[in-house]
Amino acid sequence: MLNQNTSPLNSSVSPWMIIGISVVLVGVVVIQAVTNYNREEKYMGQILAEKGSALIRSFEAGSRTGMMGRMGNEAHLQTLLEETAAQGDISYIFIVDHTGEILAHNQKQKIGTQFKDLLSKNNTLPPDQPQWRIVKGSGQKDYFEVYKTFLPVLNRQGMGQGKKMMGQMGNSMWCSPGWIKGLSQDRLLDPENRPTIFIGMDVGPFEDARKEDLRNSGITITVILFLGLGGVVSLFWAQNHARSHSLLQDTRAFASELVTSLPMGILAVNGTSNIVYVNEVAARLINRAINQAKGKKATDLLPPSLVELFDVVKNGNPVLEKELILETKTNKAAPVAVTITEIIGEQRNFIGHVFILKDLSDIRALELEIQQKDKLAAVGTLAAGVAHEVRNPLSSIRGYATYFGSLFDSDSDNKKAARIMAEEVDRVNRVISELLEFARPMKLELKEAAIYKLVDKALRLIKCEADLAKVKIISSIEADIPNVAIDKDRFTQVLLNIFINGIQAMESGGSLTVKVFTLEDRLRFEISDTGDGISAADQANIFNPYFTTKKKGTGLGLAIAFKIIESHGGAISIESSKGKGTTFMISIPLEQNNRELI
Fold first, then answer.
1. Non-local CB neighbours of 76 within 8 Å, separated by 6+ positions
2. Are 28 and 224 in contact (CB under 8 A)?
3. pLDDT digits 0-9 by tens, 426-438
């Protein structure tokens, strides 16, 4: 039976589901990457801003310390700038006044140059609190720049307190002219002229970290996309595999069902001549059970005639056909057409051999039946012509015999001769009548008949003859056999003919067995005797007109019986072995619409 199951892959999972899941995962990763990027940018700004602010406060504190001592000069401030800028992540530190002139710079060559910036161009005062921004430097390099108003001193009150702490130091000692060139105490405390300090920090490490995060996110997205693509491809592959597997299973089931249902025997052997497959028909024809045949050597199991044929094929004939006679499981010799051919694989490699066995018994029986019908038709046509030509002279001969007999005395030899002549003419006339009856188309008078009554009547008619021949009659009639439409007289004639032939075949006594039963849509009669049997050569002619194995008889009885059964749409056959008795088998349809009347 073909496999009708559907693979779960074909119904529960769709490729679009895999694609949708992959898209959702990619979206989640992208959103997470953007969120992380923004968060890291914010954290970077906070960290660098705090660091820049701390550096500015430290620088202001250092400046104040220098101002309160005698080290508050330009060289000290330059050193402080350079040392602070020497830290790994500090790119530059410089101080500019409100006009944009660089008052101090970690790179000395830039001192006194003009700083062009929006803060100067727009005359926007720098804030007292640190601010930050991203600026482009040389080579398109980004710098994180923190800037604020530079306040090395807080206010005039603070300066007064400082003087009291240091004693009687003059104002010039707080901020000597050399501390920052052009930057006096008044300018430091003037809110309109306060300088601005800028600290530029390299954002490369932070950018590298962000790029690494972006790269990791990209790798994650790529992996997810590849996983999704792989999932889709795998799903398609799995579905194709499942579909191919299902198709293969269906093909195997179809091939198995086809081979099993074939009316021919199939037997396959591999390259080492071991039997790998045998169906029921082949097992019956080689007279072996299927479980006994599989795995066995073909040369050890097959009949000798098949082994000889197999050897011929193995010696160079790729295909061989021949008709053999094989002994089947029923111990009956059957004509079998055998075909042996090689099995070649797709790579042109030798796989084994396959035996195809076709039972020709039915074909031979059909051929024999056709020959029998043709022969009967020819004999019937000949008999009709001969009977017509012979019957007219016989009438004249009988008339003259009667006339000459009347001329002699009743006790004379001539009278007796004339009477014998008339009797022989009558016997010939009866034979001719039988021949004409056989030759002409048979008209049946079909009526519903109870089969058990019909058989019982025929057995009662031959009971006396059976008793005289010491033949025991055994009858077995199936109960509830339905009535059948038959010609009762002609069917009784058939039964009587076969019964009498069976009794006459048992010269030393025996048993006559009559079985009546239904088989599918047919009524079957089996009439067996325990006589000497009939040879195979005689069985081929047993239903021919004028063929007989008895010393007495015309040989028309079984020929007429054959025609009567055939006219009922039935069949009659014989099984016999010399010395083992004979069985006549008759079958007729139970229903009239299942028969072909002749």
1. 66
2. no
3. 888 877 777 777 7
Name which of 472, 456, 587 is nearest 530 in CA terms: 472
CA 426 to chain centre: 79
Q: What is the DSSP string of 117-132?
A: -HHHHTTPPPPSS-EE
Amino acid identity, residue 500?
A: I
- Computed over its alpha carbons, how large is the radius of gyration of the chain? 63
Higher pLDDT: 558 or 120? It is 558
Lowest pLDDT segment from 1-10, 52-61, 291-300, 583-592: 1-10
Token couple for 323: 């008709």
Question: What does the block give as tokens for 256?
Answer: 């198995």
pTM of the model: 0.45
In angstroms, the CA 310 to CA 318 distance is 10
DSSP state of 214: H
Do 574 and 582 meet the contact criterion of CB atoms below 8 Å apart?
yes
Give the tens place of pLDDT for each residue, 267-292.
Answer: 888 888 888 888 888 888 888 887 77
User: 49, 318, 55, 341: which is closest to 203 by C-alpha?
Assistant: 49
The structure tokens listed for 496 are: 């009587």
Domains and CATH numbers, the chain: 20-210 (3.30.450.20), 263-359 (3.30.450.20), 365-439 (1.10.287), 447-594 (3.30.565.10)
For residue 182 the two structure tokens come to 């052009």
Nearest to 383 by CA among 433, 436, 342, 431: 436
Give the DSSP per-residue string, 147-208: EEE--SS--HHHHHHHHHHH-S--HHHHS-TTTSTT--HHHHH-TTS--EEEEEEE-HHHHH
Contact criterion met (CB below 8 Å) for 74 and 179: yes
581 CA to centre of own chain: 54
Confidence at residue 146, expressed as pLDDT on a 0 to 100 scale: 86
Summarize pLDDT for 79-117 with one digit per residue, the tens: 777 887 787 778 888 888 877 888 888 888 888 888 876
**Any residues with CB less than 8 A from the CB of 397 and at least 6 apart, and which?**
421, 425
Dist CA 216 CA 557 (whole Å) = 106
Which residue in this structure is represented by tokens 């749409």? 569
